[in-house]
Amino acid sequence: MTAEAGRKHYHDIDGARSVLMFLSVALHAGTVYAPARPWITGNTERHDFFDWLIFGFHLFVTPTFFFVGGFFAVLLLSRRAVGDFFTNRLLRTGVPLVTIALSLNMVEHYLRYVDAAAPGAAASFFGWVGSPEFVAIWADGTWALHLWFLVSLMPMFLLAGLVQAGLPANSRLRSLSVKFSDRLATLFAGSAAFALFLLLLAGANTANYVVAGQIPGSYQLIFPGFQSWYKLVSEFPFFVIGVMAALSPTLLKTLVTWRPWMPFAAAAALYFQPYANPDQGMLESLAMLFANQLSIWVLVLFILQFFHRFFLDGGPKTSWLADCALSMYLFHHCLVYIYGRWMVPLDWPIALEFALLTAAAAGTVILIHEFAVRRIGWVRLLFNGKTDIEAIRARRAKQAGKNAPLPPAPERQAGALG
Q: In angstroms, rounded to a whole number, what is the distance separating the alpha carbons of residues 252 and 178?
């Protein structure tokens, strides 16, 4: 990829990632009221709609994140040295991961521990730290909570950097990967051919799951506190297609080209939400797995096509949304739990509670982002992995200057003459 291509800003893809991070608030707020996931044990208000909501969101939110992660990893590597890439990913992903894991995630785990304990039996927060329950969440990997996505991304970034470092710029393997991606774009550019491409992608994902499940010990943690091999590779195909789309502008064009039938396919996928379950036989379970992966790819690519068609141009609002997105992703989970606990005694309509819970969590994150993350250097570094406070202040001052009222006409004239 050329340096010029690497500098191009893909507002549509960045916008899709940002909006989905905001949508994660509604996803986790829905968990509070979902019968299949009694996330807050004290809350007895449940409705089947929220099962449909959260399982529907899970079909496309995280897979799209992995596609975007692979796409932007290639763009970063196209204009940075490998060492700079690792430093950037460590700051932007590793530092916020560790910060939230040690702070808000521990607060949420403690609240979960209190909710699950018998009345009066829960230890204080500092008494809980170091307890068997505390050690268990670090040993079994549940410390990550919603941050498992970032945990999975880290080895993928490592792999991308090692491949970049290990393959010379003129490597035949590099050229073959680009040619292969270009060839796929040419073969499946047509509308009917693209439908076949979706089936092939679903088949590849299904094969990935089947192979991963046959590896001995694949469901066990690779090492304490991390993830299983099965979980780690489950989202890898989306990262790979993101990489291929970045390597081949032709493939990216094929993926994001608007196709009139895709909204209907996406609506069907979201409505039916095919999931395999333990009660099914092997063949039926395999068929449902394939249908599940097909639904995921339909939804992911529909989202990319939608944002490419309607949100291609950037602007100040788009930039702010992109800047706030990581804060929204990091902070909202614990806030949803806290506000959800407060709402347990309320006997309000469940739809109203859900709307207020979502708005309260998102609104609190926006305030934190605006008045702390964007203004205080150490907060921005720890929770966003950035050190650009001075640049933000300069942009804010410039914008304030643009919005300042003009002086009266005589003063303008005197200023011009003097």
A: 12
| Long-range pairs of 209-217 with CB within 8 A, sequence gap ≥ 24 | 209/234, 209/289, 209/293, 210/286
Q: Are 111 and 338 in contact (CB under 8 A)?
A: yes
Model-level pTM?
Answer: 0.92
First and final CA of the chain: distance in angstroms?
Answer: 52
How far is C-alpha 73 from the geometric centre of its chain's CA atoms? Answer: 14
pLDDT per residue over 317-359, tens digit each? 888 899 999 999 999 999 999 999 999 888 899 999 999 999 9
Q: What values do phi and psi take at 221, rounded to 5? A: -60, 140
217: left (phi over 0), alpha (psi -120 to 50) or beta: left
What is d(CA 332, CA 55) in angstroms, rounded to the nearest whole number?
Answer: 19
Instruction: Quote the DSSP letter at residue 228.
Output: B
Note the helical H segments in 215-281.
Answer: 229-234, 236-247, 249-256, 262-272
| DSSP H or E segment with residue 340 | helix 316-342
pLDDT digits over 153-179, tens only? 999 999 999 999 999 888 999 999 999
What is the rounded CA–CA span in Å between residue 350 and residue 333? 19
**E strand or H helix at 20, and its extent?**
helix 11-31
Report the chain's C-alpha Rg in angstroms: 24
- The alpha helices in 32-147, defined as continuous H runs, are 48-79, 82-89, 95-102, 104-116, 125-128, 132-139
Round to whole Å and give the CA distance between 101 and 139: 14
Q: Name beta bridge partners: 221.
A: 228
Torsion angle defined by CA atoms of residues 61, 272, 303 and 64, in that order, rounded to the nearest 10 degrees: 30
